Amino acid sequence: MASYFDLVFDIPNSSSFTYQVDDKKLASAGKRAMVPFGRRELTGYIIGERDTLPMGVKEESVKKIRRVVDADPLFGTENVELAKWMADYYLCSLGQALSCMIPSGRRAIVPVFPDIEESSEQSLSISDEQAAALGAITKDADNFPQIFYLYGVTGSGKTEVFLRAAQHVLNQNKSVIYLVPEISLTHQTANMIGSRFGSLAATLHSGMTPSTRLSEWVRIRKGDAPIVVGPRSAVFAPVPNLGLIIIDEEHDGSYKSSNTPRYHARQVALKRCQIIAENKGDARLVIGSATPSLEAWKLMEDSKTIKRLDLSRRLSGGIMPKIKAVNLETSTSCITKELKEEILATAAMGRQTILFLNRRGFAYFYKCKSCGYEQTCRSCSVSLTWHKTKNKCICHYCGYSESVPKVCPGCGSVEAGYRGFGTEMIEEEVRLTFPDLRVRRVDADTAGKKGGLEDTLAQFKAGLIDILLGTQMVAKGLNFPGVRLVGVVLADTGLHLPDFRAAERTFSLIVQVAGRAGRYFPDGKVIIQTLRMNDPVIVKSCAMDVAGFYKAELGQRLALNFPPYSRIIRFVIRARDEKKADSAINRLASFAKPLVSGGIDLLGPSECPIGIINNNHRRQLIIRGENMSTIHAVARKTMSLYEKGKDTKVYLEIDVDPVSML
Prior knowledge:
Elements: E1 4-8, E2 17-20, E3 32-37, E4 40-50, E5 67-68, H1 77-89, H2 94-101, H3 128-138, E6 146-152, H4 158-171, E7 175-179, H5 183-197, E8 201-203, H6 210-221, E9 227-230, E10 242-248, H7 265-278, E11 284-289, H8 294-302, E12 306-311, E13 322-327, H9 337-348, E14 352-356, E15 365-368, E16 385-387, E17 392-394, E18 401-402, E19 416-419, H10 423-433, E20 439-442, H11 444-447, H12 452-461, E21 467-470, E22 483-488, H13 502-514, E23 525-530, H14 536-542, H15 546-560, E24 567-575, H16 578-592, E25 600-613, E26 616-625, H17 628-643, E27 651-656
Helix pairs in contact: 1-2, 1-7, 3-4, 13-14, 16-17
């Protein structure tokens, strides 16, 4: 029996640390343990056992494990192998990588999906395109991992292909991971999977309590739930004998973590399948979207490793909606004459409307006409947003709030006030304009109430709401038979952002939200209100010209040498002291510059587009090149030089393949 155990911790230190334990029967690899670490007590992850101490370590210096947290192991060798790859690729420690995989908390009893008979939907016929896609995914093959991209217009039946592929894999006594972009969509997909697979299904997401999440984790690891649904963190689900990973709405930015390690679920999923293939297993990756990420589109064009499967037409009696752009500049209202007429016509038919605006709050920009004063957050370099229902001006980055000014705080003028509009203002105007219609708003403010989102969507599906107004939550994955009309209140909100992905995100959002209209009837309509009638993104969105947009956008990216024609590693320095932030980023750049040679660019150092968040001054340095291994080497060497003698009050964030540059 082992005498010593190696542990790693959720700290930016890549070393493992050796401990011993009084009762050796309790400790084993794959469990968590509470141990003394310096002056603190930390929870560590036991990654290995050893009979002798590492070279140079003396017996008297080895501390004891105070408590083994788990009765059974939570992770195995495959998890550790994946964590080692993540640590290497995302430039973090092994402990940080393991920590993002393993749920915290103690076990609790959790409800499972009822063990019900399979849904009758499985007996329904599928289209020739769906059958061809399903056949390709489930076909026997010799080379692994197999990667498929299910590219289909909204409403073309991608979900049914996913579910049937999952059933095929379950029939082979293998497991399935089904990823969706956000928690708000998890319950819809979970309900669908629950009705299809009953108690064989489990969910994993960050909205669960730690104890509930841990209990589901243990149930999954034991093999009691061979199909798991959840957002990006569910990619780590410890399913035995993994046979299939599904990534729905692959283009969505929420698949990328905003905390260390800043992993992308798509890359991790591919690596899991590769690890299984290296061990002579068969795991397939099926990705799907109506608006693929630009990287995925380029890969489908160039690569022989990913097979594109097309679903070109809508099912359930619907066809693609008619789309019209309307100039908002000529309107005196947030709701143009054209949109108002279509809402009334839709209501007269007994049908429903979705209104989309990707900006919550009532109004978002306060300015004085007399002195030019602008109301910004005292802790962040962003404007405060007026939330009328709370009677507060709130920062959407740090949560700071203050009262709405009655006069200009700068000069006392009454010629000051809020401009622009958010979902609260649109809700107020819609209620005044259509007093006889039932209106409900869905955004982060309303969805935060427990059960609020689920209740609203259930009422909308039941036809108890005429107009559903919301932010991105109404753009993703919703499938309601009664929806005839979609109105995009302002299509341009994301186009002005200083981010090379701004056009891609805007195009995707418009196409996705437009796809909610006319899924079951051939009379769907979409009104896109815009201040930029001639912008190529708006023009191509209205034409639903996906291929044309990608061709033009890829041309722009090639000219500017941005992904997918290059790879990027972004360093962000943050510090409360502005001079320390400037000094640190310049020091970091001084180490990177001598390492940069042909084929590698260094962009910066510079202030981040959002220069201050929560009183932290933010500076950035970007390493760009065609070859990831080359820029990885530069980044690692730069980090190692910078870490020596760094200021403890300055923080370094590292983002490999960033999806946001703000």
